[in-house]
Amino acid sequence: MASLVIRTGRADLAFDGIRTEFGLRSSFPAAVLAEAEAAVSRSAGDRPDLTSIPLVTIDPPGAKDLDQALCLEKTASGFVVHYAIADLGLFVTPGGALDLEVRQRGQTIYLPDGNVPLHPTVLSEGAASLLPGVVRPAVLWTFTCSADGVPTSVEVRRALVRSQAQFDYESVQKTFDAGNPHPSVAALAEFGPLRRALARKRGAVELQLPEQEIESNGEGWKLVTRPRADVDAWNAEISLMTGMAAASLMLEARVGILRTLPDPDASAVSALRKSAAALKVPWPADVSPGAFLAGLDASTPEAMALFTDATRLLRGAGYSAFNGSVPEVTTHAGVAAPYTHVTAPLRRLVDRFATEVCLAVSGGQELPAWLAEALPQLPSLMGASDSLASKVERASLDLVEAWVLAGRVGQEFDAVVLRSGDHEAEIFIANPPILAKCAGKRLPEAERLRVRLTEADPATRQVRFERA
Fold it and tell me: How far is CA 211 from the centre of its chain?
C-alpha cells in the first residue's frame, strides 16, 4: 500500500467547497426527520424469527450503515448461503416525506470527511442497520447450492435476524491467512473461488485497476492505493449471486428493474486485441475478453494499460424498468448475466424497490400500485444520482492529488503510461498514488517513463505532467 500524508489546515472544512459546488445536503428537512423517528418504533409484523442463524457482517472499518449479513454453510452436497439485507421497506412509507426525500437523493454520497446519507442516520446507522447483537427486521435470501457453487433453489422472505459480530475485510483476511476464520464465513475460501470461476466461464469482465482512496490520519489526509483482498472478492460474489437471482425472478415474472450494460461491440474488442498485440501480451483467439483480462498479472504495467484500455468494453450502463414486456437488453456485460441491485438499500435507492418486486413475485402477489408507478421513474433518478456520485468522487480525488503535489511543480516522478492519445496520455504514478494526464503525442502504452509535474493547483483541482 502506497500513501502520502498531507495537511490541509482546517481538516473539518477540507471538502466543504465540493459540497457547496455540487449542492450536497447532509441535513434533512424536519418533516423527514420526524417521519424517520416515528418509523423507528414501527412493528416488524408477523415474520419468522431466524435469529438463530449465526450471521456476521463484513464492511469497511468503522462502518455503521450495515446493509448485509452473511452465513455460509458447507453441506454434504454443496453449500447453503444465508444473506440478510436491511429491510428499508418496513421504515419508508410510500409517498411520504421520507420517500420523496430519498428519491431526490438517490444514494449515499461518500466524501473523505463524512458522507451525505441517503436516509437519516437514525435509520441508516440505527434501527435499519444490521448492527451486531441486536434483533433487526431483514429480507433474508437463502441459497441452496451444488458442490460447484450453482444455486439449485432460492428463497427470499422477510424475517427477524441478529448479527453475531461485525468484521472488516482486513481482519477477516488475517483470520483466513492464519487458518482460523469465523465459522460463519469459513466456507468463503472454497465458495468464493467457485463463484469466480463461474463468472470467468460466463465471460464476466473485471478490471483490476489500482483504486485510489482518501483517508484521514487525524492530522490531515492521505492518498492510498489498496490491493483488493481475497475476502473482498469472495464476499462480492455473494452480492453478485443475489443480484443475479433477483434479476431471474423479475424476468420470469416480466416485471422489475434491471441494472444493464450492453455487450461490447466488435470494434471495442478488436481495439483491445490490437493493444494486447502491441504490448506483446498473448491472447488466444478462442479466449473471451473477460477470461483474458482475468488471466493477467495486475501488478504489471502491461496489465494496467490493458485494464485501462478495456474500460471501453464497459460503456452504456443504466437501469431498465419493465412491466409486462422484457426490455431488449437484459444482461450486464460486466457480470455476463441478467443482474439487478438489491443488496444495499441503506445506501442506494433502487435496491428497496427491487427488493419489494422480488418479495411480491416470489409470494405470487401483484405489485402494489405505488411500486408499479415508481418503477418507470427509477432509471432517471438513479442515472442522475450515479452521475453526481461519480463527479463528487472524482472531484475529491482531484483535490487531494493537487494538495499532495502542491509545491512540487518541476519535480520528476516515475510513471506508467496507461492509455495514449493524440495530445496527452493517462498515466499512473505509484508514489504518491496518482492517476493523471501527461502531455505528449502517442506515448507508448505500458512504458515506464519519467514525467515532470507542470501544474498542481488545488483551486482548480488540476494536476498535469509532461514527459521528462
Answer: 12
Query: Which residue reads 459480530 in cell numbers?
Result: 165
**Could you give the CA distance from residue 231 to residue 178 in angstroms, rounded to a whole number?**
13
Q: What is the CA radius of gyration of the chain?
A: 23
Q: Do residues 188 and 231 touch, judged by C-beta distance below 8 A?
A: yes
Task: Tell me the pLDDT tens digit for each residue of 120-164.
Answer: 999 999 999 999 999 999 999 999 999 999 999 999 999 999 999
pLDDT (tens digit, 9 = 90+) per residue, 26-55? 899 999 999 999 999 999 999 999 999 999
Contact in structure between 163 and 57 (CB atoms under 8 Å): yes
Residues 236, 338: Cα–Cα separation, whole Å: 16
CA 91 centroid distance within chain: 24
Contact 363, 299 (CB under 8 A): no
Cα–Cα distances (Å) from 117 to 197, 347, 349, in that order, read 35, 7, 11
Q: Over the stretch 302-323, which tens digit does the pLDDT of each residue have? A: 888 899 889 989 999 999 999 9
- The full 3-state SS of 297-330, as one line of letters, equals CCCCHHHHHHHHHHHHHCCCCEEEEEECCCCCCC
DSSP 386-448: HHHHHHHHHHHHHHHHHHHHTT-TT-EEEEEEEEE-SSEEEEEETTTTEEEEEE-SSPPTT-E
Q: pTM score, two decimals?
A: 0.92
Residues 6+ apart with CB under 8 A from 360: 366, 367, 368, 371
Tell me which residue of 283, 59, 282, 249 sits closest to 156, measured CA to CA: 249
Whole-angstrom distance between the N-terminal and C-terminal Cα of the chain? 26
Would you tell me how many other CB atoms lie within 10 Å of the CB of residue 393? 16
Q: Is the peptide bond before 345 cis (omega within 30 degrees of 0)?
A: no
**Which uninterrupted H or E stretch holds 250?**
helix 230-253
C-alpha–C-alpha distance, residues 135 and 90, integer Å:
14
Please give the Cα distance from 286 to 284 (Å, whole number). 6
Q: Is the dihedral of CA 129, 389, 203, 192 positive or negative?
A: negative
Q: Which three cell numbers stand for residue 114?
A: 463524512
Task: Return the number of other C-beta atoms located less than 10 Å from residue 321's C-beta.
Answer: 23
